[in-house]
Structure formats: C-alpha cells, structure tokens
C-alpha cells in the first residue's frame, strides 16, 4: 500500500491531535541546519488549534531569518531521550503597542 506524502499528512493533523498522541513538533532550517523541538501545548497557546501545515507559515529561522527553508516533522520521544532531548518552551508572549501616525490638515 502506498504511503501518504508527509505534506498531506501535515494538512490533516492538528495541534490538539499531536498533543493527545504525545508528539513533539520538530522544525528544522535546512539552510543553517538548526533544529528546534516544541511541545504542541505551547504552539496551541501561540497559534490556536490549527493544522500543522499552517503552523509552519508562522515561523521564521532565528539564525538566518529565512522562511522558505523550514521543514517540519513530528517526533515521538523514546524512553532514552527523556532527560537528554532539548525542548524549546514558551515562557511568555509579549505584545508591543506601536503607534501609527498620519499627517492631516488643521480644519
């Protein structure tokens, strides 16, 4: 039986489903070869319950700043990885107020 293409699998899988299965979201930049792993609960707080292909659109590599080299996979941690696998956790979400000005005539 043929296997489903990984991108089509990401289109049908949501963050809540990944959380319920105990999967980690692993995002890799193929340009600078950096991999970060995230808990699905942290991404739900940041993005809401969206499909996994929409999560990747909201990310940008922190090292090189490129968006089009990002690749996402699902990772199920094994018993030997507990205590050794680095995970990126969401500490806080900051919102910045930025004023937007326009010039107008006195009337």
Question: Your description of this structure?
Answer:
By secondary structure, the chain is α+β, with helices and mostly antiparallel strands. 8% of the residues are buried. 26% of the residues lie in helices and 17% in strands. It has helices at residues 6-12, 15-21, 40-47, 52-57; strands spanning 24-29, 34-39, 70-75. α2 (15-21) packs antiparallel against α3 (40-47). The protein is elongated. The termini are far apart.
Give a quick rundown of the structure:
By secondary structure, this protein is α+β, with helices and mostly antiparallel strands.
Structural class: alpha+beta
Order of helices and strands: HHEEHHE
How much of the polypeptide forms β-strand, as a percent range?
15-25%
Distance between the termini: 74 Å
> In terms of quaternary structure, what is this?
single chain
Low-pLDDT residue spans:
none
Helical percentage: 25-40%
| Number of E strands | 3
Count up the helices.
Answer: 4
Q: What overall form do the CA principal axes indicate? A: elongated
Give a quick account of the main beta sheet: strands, pairing sense, barrel closure.
Answer: 3 strands, antiparallel
In round numbers, the mean pLDDT is 85
Strand line-up of the largest beta sheet = 2-1-3
Radius of gyration equals 18 Å
Topology:
Elements (H helix, E strand, L loop, with lengths): L5 H7 L2 H7 L2 E6 L4 E6 H8 L4 H6 L12 E6 L32
Antiparallel strand pairs: 1-2, 1-3
Helix pairs in contact: 2-3
Keywords:
single chain; 107 residues; alpha+beta; three-stranded antiparallel β-sheet; 4 helices
């Amino acid at each position: 039986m043929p296997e489903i293409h990984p991108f089509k699998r990401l289109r049908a899988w949501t963050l809540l489903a990944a959380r319920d299965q105990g999967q980690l979201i692993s995002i890799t930049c193929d340009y600078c070869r950096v991999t970060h792993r995230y808990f699905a609960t942290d991404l739900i707080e940041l993005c809401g319950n969206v499909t996994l292909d929409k999560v990747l659109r909201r990310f940008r590599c922190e090292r090189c700043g490129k968006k089009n080299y990002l690749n996402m996979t699902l990772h199920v941690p094994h018993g030997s990885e507990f205590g050794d696998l680095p995970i990126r956790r969401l500490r806080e979400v900051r919102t910045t107020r930025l004023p937007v000005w326009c010039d107008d005539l006195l009337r």
